């Protein structure tokens, strides 16, 4: 019997994980990235980004999101410290 490892001449490429998946460029020019990588780049946990509920596309079991949309969601919730409260209009 021959050894199966001796027959393999070229090593297998490393398996793609959620972190190592490539970015996807859509036909309209938008770039989508894996949600895990977007969270790491912005210093967040993936679960936090998932709770923000950005528009998500699953490709091969990996969640892809638009990084610009996620940044807008993060920036939209910022408040100034000691800012006066927003006044309501009287009707």
How would you characterize the overall build of this protein?
This protein has 91 residues and is of the alpha+beta class. 31% of the residues lie in helices and 15% in strands. It has four helices and four strands, in the order αββααββα. The protein has helices spanning 4-7, 35-41, 46-52, 67-76; strands at 24-25, 31-34, 56-59, 62-65. Strands 1-2-4-3 form a four-stranded antiparallel beta sheet. A hairpin with a 5-residue loop joins β1 and β2 (31-34). α2 (35-41) crosses α3. The mean pLDDT is 88.
Keywords for this structure?
15% strand, 91 residues, alpha+beta, 4 helices
How would you summarize the topology of this molecule?
Elements: H1 4-7, E1 24-25, E2 31-34, H2 35-41, H3 46-52, E3 56-59, E4 62-65, H4 67-76
Antiparallel strand pairs: 1-2, 2-4, 3-4
Mean pLDDT: 88
Class by helix and strand content?
Answer: alpha+beta
Q: What's the main sheet like?
A: 4 strands, antiparallel
Unreliably modeled segments: none
| Shape label | elongated
Strand content: 15-25%
Distance between the termini: 90 Å
Strand/helix succession: HEEHHEEH
Radius of gyration, CA atoms, in whole angstroms: 22 Å
Number of helices: 4
Instruction: Assign a percent range to the helix content.
Output: 25-40%
What spatial order of strands do you see in the largest sheet? 1-2-4-3
Q: How many strands?
A: 4
């Amino acid at each position: 019997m021959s050894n199966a490892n001796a027959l393999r001449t070229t090593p297998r490429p490393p398996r793609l994980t959620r972190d190592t998946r490539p970015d996807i460029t859509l036909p309209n020019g938008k770039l989508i990235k894996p949600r895990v990588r977007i969270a790491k780049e912005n210093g967040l946990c993936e679960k936090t980004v998932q709770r923000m509920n950005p528009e998500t596309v699953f490709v091969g079991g990996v969640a892809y999101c638009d990084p610009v949309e996620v940044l807008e969601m993060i920036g939209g919730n910022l408040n100034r410290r000691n800012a006066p409260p927003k006044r309501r209009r009287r009707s």
